[in-house]
């Protein structure tokens, strides 16, 4: 005979159930590719066989591969997502996306997004996909989104250009590109993948002002607390295509941040710093590590309550693109890591 459960037992049962719910249940990973080719430069390419290996891994390990619009909407509305949610994206819109990638994605019935440059399509630039091919892919479920008109560095000013003129030019570039995509494909999602993954704070503010969402090429998982003008994506081509290392990234978690990151990623500072404020700690602070390329190391300064940490390079950064990649093992999700990446573009003299 089953005895009636007491309120205290019921209360503890509910708490136990809640503790078992996945952390970052609104979190996901976005993968970023360029070429799917066996012959083009390996730095931005993945072979068709390796690409299929990625897709097969996603299928065999029960990842929930959803479209980018479905993912973004869920994050904005703070809806629960599968604990293994992934979106697939391509930058630049190469013909091999149509010839090599699309048939494999169709085979596995995975949705995907291609970020394109309308001016390069209009000019029939070699290796760039055509509008007709994009319309074929749209009819099969692909999403087409904005990568600027011609893949210029959006944060660069022209010689003698005022800040106001630069902002007006970039606004026109983004909006014109979006209109061309809408005219040719019917898609108007207001997603912008920054060319080269580079953006500064003023560009982010412009993107927010005109109602767009910005995507970078820095790594990390995403959740609803992310800044939607600088969403990370894991590069999965070239040196990053190795499935043995990609699996760790696919299982990564987004650090729950309590404050928006208001920092300029384009800087003339040689030892720039960034402070992360955590809304919860599912990791041990002394296991939090940050890695900097070029043999550099990070200085970590924790607040007294361990709710925030300031990360700064110990040695001057080299000029150009670099990143701080910060990770920490989850205490509640054995074998999984929180991951955050801060991209930097170090310039001799700040040009923003």
Automatic annotation (TrEMBL):
It holds the Pfam family Polysacc_deac_1. One of its GO terms (cellular component) is extracellular region. It is found in: Secreted. Coiled coil: none annotated. One of its GO terms (molecular function) is hydrolase activity, acting on carbon-nitrogen (but not peptide) bonds. Residues 1-27 form the signal peptide. InterPro entries: Glyco_hydro/deAcase_b/a-brl, NODB_dom, Polysacch_Deacetylase. GO terms for biological process: carbohydrate metabolic process. Keywords: Signal. Residues 84-227 form the NodB homology domain. CDD domains: CE4_DAC_u4_5s. Gene3D superfamilies: Glycoside hydrolase/deacetylase. This is Polysaccharide deacetylase.
């Amino acid at each position: 005979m089953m005895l009636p459960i007491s309120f205290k037992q019921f209360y503890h049962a509910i708490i136990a159930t809640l503790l078992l719910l996945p952390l970052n249940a609104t979190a996901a990973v976005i993968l970023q590719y360029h070429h799917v080719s066996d012959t083009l430069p390996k730095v931005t390419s993945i072979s068709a066989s390796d690409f299929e290996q990625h897709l097969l891994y996603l299928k065999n390990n029960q990842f929930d591969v959803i479209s980018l619009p479905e993912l973004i909407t869920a994050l904005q509305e703070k809806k629960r997502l599968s604990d293994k949610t992934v979106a697939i994206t391509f930058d630049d819109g190469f013909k091999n996306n149509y010839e090599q990638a699309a048939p494999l994605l169709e085979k596995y019935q995975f949705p995907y997004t291609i970020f394109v440059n309308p001016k390069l399509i209009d000019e029939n630039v070699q290796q760039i996909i055509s509008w007709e091919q994009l319309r074929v892919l749209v009819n099969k479920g692909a999403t087409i989104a904005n990568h600027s008109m011609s893949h210029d560095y959006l944060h660069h000013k022209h010689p003698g250009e005022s800040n106001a003129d630069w902002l007006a030019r970039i606004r026109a570039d983004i909006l014109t590109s979006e209109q061309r995509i809408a005219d040719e494909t019917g898609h108007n999602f207001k997603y912008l993948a920054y060319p080269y993954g580079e953006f500064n704070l003023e560009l982010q503010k412009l993107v927010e002002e005109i109602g767009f969402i910005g995507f970078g090429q820095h790594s990390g998982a995403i959740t609803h607390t992310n800044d939607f003008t600088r969403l990370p994506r894991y590069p999965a081509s070239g040196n990053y295509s190795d499935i043995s290392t990609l699996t760790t990234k696919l299982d990564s978690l987004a650090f729950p941040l309590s404050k928006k990151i208001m920092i300029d990623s384009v800087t003339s500072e040689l030892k720039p710093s960034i402070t992360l404020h955590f809304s919860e700690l599912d990791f041990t602070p002394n296991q939090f590590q940050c890695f900097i390329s070029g043999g550099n190391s990070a200085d970590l300064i924790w607040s007294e309550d361990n709710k925030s940490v300031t990360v700064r390079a110990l040695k001057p950064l080299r000029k150009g693109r670099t990143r701080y990649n910060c990770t920490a093992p989850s205490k509640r999700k054995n074998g999984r890591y929180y991951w955050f990446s801060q991209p930097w573009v170090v310039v001799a003299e700040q040009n923003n």
